Structure formats: structure tokens, C-alpha cells
Amino acid sequence: MSLDNKSFQSLKKLLTVCLKQNIPFASYRLPLVTEIISLVQHHSFPEKLDSIDNIDQKTGFVVAPFDETNGHSTYFLKPDCVFFSNDIDDVYINKLSENNRFLSIEKLSEKDIQTTPSAEFINNVNSAKMAMADGKFHKVVLSKVKIEKLNDDFVTVDFFLKLCNEYPHAFVYFIQLPEVGCWIGATPEPFLLLEDGKVKTVSLAGTQIATGNDIDAYSWSEKEIEEQGIVTGFIESTLRSLKIDKYTMNGPVNYKAANLIHLKTSFEFNEDELQNKLGDFIKSFHPTPSVGGLPKDAALDFIQSHEKHDRSYYTGFLGPLNIENKSNLFVNLRCLQLFDKQFVLYSGAGITTSSIAENEWEETENKMQTMTNVMRIINP
Question: What percent of the chain shows pLDDT beyond 90?
Fold first, then answer.
């Protein structure tokens, strides 16, 4: 990302004012572009969506949880103003600084979030393997959380802008919504991309640390190939169930995301195949086996009964809809949730019968480095 100093300062001022006044906003940078787009809703509150059936008719930014069993809902930010990083009106920012509409909203608290002990995670992995051996499901994704303190001089906007610089291939975002809280992420996984009459989605599974080798030099274990195949097979069968038969598939190929290498298979089909049923597509796919498991219901039941933390909006999906005639929804990975004095890191790993619990713990640690490597620069 490369912004001139004036654009950089104006963007920083805009986001700082929104944070201070508690104004709902979503600021994001799409993969391999330099433009940062900021959507601000300052006249009203984001909409709680009881249904996503007509979501393709909306324009704005959607944020959906992993599931809605813990009281989390899907919210839609309908912008009163859209700012591009090279064209931000300082006069408008000054007006926002006088907007006190949202100051009375009580910000979300940390509640009882606690760092996941390694023993707890490893026990969950081994329990999952036993359940799979009994034929209850084929794959489950287990997650963990880590709590870290913020320094008093931490500047949230600087962290977001640094992420944009460090991870050009990721979808980098910064959001603040009353019922969702404040989240920042740099996710590598598209959920659904819609542009120029084409729809794209991916199967992303299998993870190893990047060591500087050529991208094609990385090899994969049986477990990682199996995991990727499970996700890819789910996408193929779901597309067929939606009567989307005319699609192309490319992969699996090695794919670098931040400090990690993944296996990726890409799918593409014409927008006409959706037949104005974007909501049905989302309901059929979310949560995918890359964040939940397969079969879906059995895996989700296992997650609910074994994970002690609340995933909240981690492994949900989010992104802009119908902005600049494009829709870009991403799975919410490589992210953190910000509070006044601390932040919560989230990460997970796909578990199959071939999993080694200690290796899966190490994978979750590696995934957290996407955030912590940059956080250490801003929050040493």
C-alpha cells in the first residue's frame, strides 16, 4: 500500500474521529489493491438482519458470526458516506467530530474471556479424533483464544495501516459496530467474490510455516491433503445441490498468506448461475468445513460442547456488498478483537484422524503470528 502523506493523515484522522465518537464504520483494503475504502454510518444504527434472503439487494458492509447460538447476530452497515483514501473531505471529518449520537452506547466488555491452555486444546483434539474414529464426523475445526494487554500508547489506526502495508495479498479490515465491537484482521480466505459477472470462491486448507523456499517447493502430509480434499469436496457437492453445474475448478496449488503456506483450490462460475439466490448460497456454505467441519451439524455440536470460549465473529464472514459494483465476502480469519486495555487473538486448526495434537497447537500459534508480528511493532 502506498498513500501520499495528505491521504494518509486524512484517513488516520477520519478513523480516529470515528473511534473517539463511537461512530459505526468499516474500513477495508481488498487484496492486491492500494485503495482503502471507508464506509461510515453516522445517521442511524447498523441493521440487525433476521434473514439474508435478499442480501444481494443491499449496499454496504455485512458482518456475520460463526453461528448465532451464543446471541450474536448478523449486522449490516449501510453507509451514509463512502470515503476513498485519496479523496477524504476534512470538512466532513470535522462534522463527524461533533456527532455525539453514539457516545452513550456502552462498549462491549471483555466479560470472562480467558486464554486457552495448551492442555485444554490438546485434549479437545484427542477427543475429536476419538469421535471421528467412532464415525461421528470426518473433520472438525478447533479454535483457541489468547488475551494480551495493550500498551497505553497503542494507536489502533497505525496498527490497521501497518497491516495494509505488510499483507498485500490479504483482505485487511477495521470495523466498529455497536453490537459487534471493534475488530481488525488480515484474512487470506475469500468466502464469495462477485465482480464482472463472475462468482469466485475457494477451498483453503492445510497449513505450514513459510520458510522462504520457492512456492512450489513445499510438500504436504497425508493429513493436510486429506483436510484440503474434505473442504474441496464439500464445495463441489454444495454447488451441485444449488444446481450450479457450470463451474471451473483450479487446484490444489500452494498459496502463500502472510507467514504461512496453504493448499488452495479455486472455483469460478457465471453470476447468472446464482439466479438472485445469494442468500441461499451463503446459508448453504456457512460455516464451511474450513472453519467448522463435516458433516456440518455433527462438527458444530462437537465445537459447542468442547470449546469453552465464544468464537463470536471469528470464523464468521464479512465484507462489502455492491460497493463499486463488486461484492467481496471473506471468512474472518487472522483477526483480533480490541478492547480498551487488551486484545483477544483467535486461531484454529482443522482436525482429522491423522492429526497430531501437539502439531495442531503449533499450527494455531503460527497462525496468530499474522497479527502478533505486526502488533509487536506497534505494541512492543
Answer: 79
Contact 192, 201 (CB under 8 A): yes
Give DSSP secondary structure letters for 49-102: ES--TTGGG--EEEEE-S-STTS--EEEE--SEEEETTB--HHHHHHHTT--TT
Give the type of residue at 205: A
- Domain count within the chain: 1
Domain membership of residue 127 as a residue range: 5-378
pLDDT of 1 strictly over 70: no
Peptide bond into 79 cis (omega under 30): no
What does the pLDDT look like over 321-356, one tens digit per residue?
Answer: 999 989 999 999 999 999 988 999 999 999 999 999
Answer yes or no: are the C-beta atoms of 169 and 260 closer than 8 Å. no
End-to-end CA distance of the chain, in Å?
A: 23
Rg for the chain (alpha carbons), in Å?
Answer: 20
Burial of residue 140 (CB within 10 Å: 0-12, 13-18, 19+) is buried
**Percent helix, strand and coil across the chain, each rounded to 5?**
30, 30, 35
- Paired residues of 87 in beta bridges: 84
Quote the pLDDT of residue 2.
63
Q: What is the CATH classification number for the domain harbouring 352?
A: 3.60.120.10
Residue type present at position 314: Y
pLDDT tens digit string along 242-261?
999 899 999 899 999 888 89
Q: For residue 2, with 0-12 CB atoms within 10 Å meaning exposed, 13-18 middle and 19 or more buried, which class applies?
A: exposed
pTM of the model: 0.95
**Which residues contact residue 226 at a Cβ distance below 8 angstroms, ignoring those fewer than 6 apart?**
352, 354
- What pLDDT does residue 258 have? 82
